[in-house]
Amino acid sequence: MANNSVVEIQNLVKRFPVGGDFFTALKNVNLILAEGEFTGLVGPSGSGKTTLLNIIGGLDSPSEGHVSVLGMALNNTSHGERARLRRKSMGFIFQSYNLLPVYSVFENVELPLILNKVDPTEREKRVNQALEWVGLSDKTDSRPAMLSGGECQRTAIARAIVHQPALILADEPTANLDAKNSHHIMKIMVRLNKELSTSFIFATHDEKIMAYLRRIIHLDDGQITEDEQIDNPKSGQ
Amino acid sequence: MLFKIAMKNLLGAKLRTWLNVFVTAISFFMIIFISAMYDGMREHAMQVSINTEIAGGAYWHPEYDPLDPMTFEDAHSVPPDAVRALVDQKKAIPVLVSQASIYPNGRIMPVIMKGINPEQNIVNMPTQMLANNDAVTIPVLIGQGMANDAKLKVGDSFTIRWLDAERTYDADEGIVVHIMDTENFKLDKGHIWVPLEKAQTMLAMEGEATYVTYAEGLSIVENKGDWVPRDVKYLIRDMEALIKADEPNAAIMYIILLALAAMGIFNAQVLSIFRRGKEIGTLMALGMTRSRVVGLFTLEGGLNAFLAVIMTVILFGPVLWYFGAYGINLGIDYSEGQMGLIIAKRLIPVYSIGLLITTTIIVSIIVLIVSYMPSRRIARMKPTDALRGKVAV
After folding, report:
1. CATH number for region A36-64+79-229
2. CA distance, residue B363 to nearest chain A CA (Å)
3. How far apart, in whole angstroms, are the C-alpha atoms of residue A149 and residue B43?
4. ipTM value of the model?
5. Coil, strand or helix: which one is A21?
C-alpha cells in the first residue's frame, strides 16, 4: 500500500447478474487515493461511479480485484468488519439525504456517535460542534420534514463528519439542490477537507461540484478514462 | 445502545407507533375478553349447577340413577337416621322423585315429578311458592322452558297421572302456582315440582325420599345406611366431562384468536418494517451490523408489545372491569338447554391470572417473532439495495 493512501484499488471488476447473464459495471479499475484528497468520480449515468463509491464504502463487494480502504482489505472482510470500518472511519452523504424522519436534526447527527458508544456529554459537545460547522445550530430540534433541501443536506454532512472520519463518501450530494445551496454545501466540505484533513470522494456529474475538486477521475462504461489533477480549482477554494 | 435507539424510533414515529401498539392492544383485549367469556360461561355453568341443584352434595337411595328413569320406581325409602337428623336440623332437604304423565291442553307429556320441601333454603329455587296453597289440589312449580313446551301459565290446571308405591295408577288435578325463571335447564325441562308431603301422599311413600341434598360445608355422616353419599366432585363430573370435552373447542378458539391477532400484528409490523427499508440501509451505511439491525427491530417489536400491555390496561382495563363486574346480557334465552350446557342470560367473564399471564406471554412472543422475521429478511439484503428502498417482500 502506498504511503498515506486511503484507498487502493487494483484490477477491480464488478459484475451484476441481469436475467440469466451478467452486466459488468466496473472493468479493471486501478486507483490510489491519498489522504486528504478532494476527489470526484465523474461520468455519465451508468458509468459505474456510484458502484465504485459503494465498493469503496464496503456497501458492495468486488467481483474481482483487490480493494483496500484505510488499510483494510475489503475482499477478505466480513460484513461485521466492514460495518465497523464504516462506523469508525467513514462518513456517507447521499443524494436524497437519507435522514431518519422521526429524529430531530440533533438526533440524526448524534446517531453515528451512539453507534460508536460515545458518552452522552461528549456526544452533545460533538453534535453541537458539527452543527455549528454546517450552520445549523438554530435547527437542532427541527425534524427533517421541516427543513429545506439545503438544510437537510447540511444535516447529512454534519452526520457524516460528527465522528471525525478519515474518509467521507458523497454520492451526488448536490443533485437535489439549487445552485446557491450547492455552492454553500461544497464550500462547507472544502473547509472540512482543509481544516480536518478529511478525505472526500464524490460521485457526481454536476459541473458545480467539479469546480471545487482537486482531482477528477473520469469514468466511462465502467473504466477510468482520465485521471485529472487540478492544482487550482475553478472555484478558487 | 439498541434500547435507546429503539425507544427513539418508537416515540419518534408517533402515529405509526401508536397504531401498531393499538392493533396489539386490541389483540390483547379480544383474546383476554373472549377467552374470559368462554371461561366465564363454563364457570357459570358450574356455579349455577351447585347453587340451584347440588349444594354441598347428596345422599342417594342405592337404586337411584338420575340418568335412568326406570330406576325411580324402586328408588325410594325412608332416609337413614343420621340423614334424617340433618333434615330435621334444616341442613338437608329430601327430594322424592317419580315418573308421571301430565295432560296439558289435551296432550300427554311424560315428566319427572319431584317432591321438595317448600320451606327449604338449601338450593336456590323458588320452592316457597309451593307453600300456602291449601285450596289447590296439587300446587305445581315449573320452569319457563317447561311452561313454553306445555303452553302453561300460572293458574292453568292440568291432569297429573302417576304410579304409586302399590303399583296403582292414580290421577288428580295440578295447578301451576309459579313459573320459575332458572338458568339450570335440568330443573326445568320435563320437570314438575310439587310439595314433598303432597308427593309422598300421592305416591303412598310417607316419609320417604329418593335423595337428600345437604348444605355446603357439611361432612359426610357416618350412619348413612346403604344410601350412597355423592359429593360435589361426583355430582359435577358430567359437567366437568362436558367442559373437558369442550376444551379442544376452547383451545381452537384461542388459537384462532391468536392467529387473527398474529396476522394483524404481522401486517402492521411488516408494513412498518418494509416501509423502513431505506432507513435500514442508512443504518447499515452508518455502520450498524446486520445482527444489530435485526436486534433493533425485534426490540422495537418487544417494546411495542410492552406498550400494548400498558395501553390494554389503560384503554381496555375499565371495559374488562365493567363486564367483569356487571356481565353482558346475551339477549338470548338458552333455557331450553339446547346447548347441552347451562348458559347464563347475563354472562360474566372470568379473568384468571393464568389467562392474563399466558395471553401476555404468547402475544409478546408473537410480536417478537413477527418483528424478527421481516427484519431478518430485510437485514440480509445488500445495503445498496436497502438504501435504494428496493425492498422485496
Report:
1. 3.40.50.300
2. 27
3. 64
4. 0.90
5. strand
